[in-house]
Write a structure and sequence with these properties.
- The structure is a single chain.
- The chain has 192 residues and is an alpha/beta fold.
- It is built from five helices and eight strands.
- It has an eight-stranded mixed β-sheet.
- Strand 7, helix 3 and strand 8 form a beta-alpha-beta unit.
- The radius of gyration is 17 Å and the shape is globular.
- The N terminus is likely disordered.
């Protein structure tokens, strides 16, 4: 059976959410759930259930920094820096982490240039999401991450974030800042 994908014409336009949906052509095959990628915080927040954790990814060539929230989205926790070896290795790690943490959506660092332009770093993240989104089928928020590294260094110096481990990796700390910034914009749910 083949899968037909319907992809919006302007896939990465800041003004639009990105819709992806598909249906199997074979008789009795299940319909795939539509997943969207957002740049607008309010639109992303509207897709979220009242409870459920978010997972942040800071994607680079060599590593993926990971941070998560609790189910109420009140606390952000830097998790770990995943060393990238292959797509299969990345996929397996992320699928297991999403299941273990009961993740309902992703926040992905979007590495715009200082001039607001998308460069090669955005292309790498876009290519990564092209593979990941169909696997996880979760809403994704692209969160501006331009000043994250400087923010991490300042937060470590101020004692707001723990210092990096023996390996010196700060990708998971950057993911925590990306996630905290997203939560600031989308708001944290009220306690019931």
């Amino acid at each position: 059976a083949t899968v037909a994908l319907s992809i919006a014409m302007d896939l990465w336009s800041p003004a639009h959410e990105i819709g992806r949906s598909g249906q199997r052509a074979a008789k009795g095959a299940r319909k795939l759930v539509a997943t969207s990628i957002f740049r607008n915080h309010a639109d992303f927040a509207a897709t979220l259930p009242r409870r459920g954790g978010l997972l942040a990814l800071d994607v680079s060539k060599r590593a993926i920094g990971l941070a998560g929230t609790d189910a109420e989205r009140r606390m952000v926790t830097p998790l770990f820096t995943h060393p990238r070896k292959s797509w299969a290795h990345d996929r397996e790690t992320l699928v297991q982490l999403v299941r273990k943490r009961a993740t309902v959506a992703l926040v992905v660092g979007w590495p715009l240039g200082l001039d607001d332009q998308e460069g090669q770093a955005c292309d790498r993240v876009r290519n990564f999401l092209d593979l990941l989104v169909p696997v996880l089928n979760l809403p994704v928020l692209l969160q501006d991450e331009r000043f994250t590294t400087g923010g991490v260094e300042a937060a470590i110096e101020a004692g707001d974030l723990p210092p990096p481990g023996k390996d010196g990796k700060i990708d998971h700390l950057a993911a925590a800042l990306i996630l905290d910034e997203a939560l600031h914009h989308i708001g944290r749910p009220a306690v019931a």
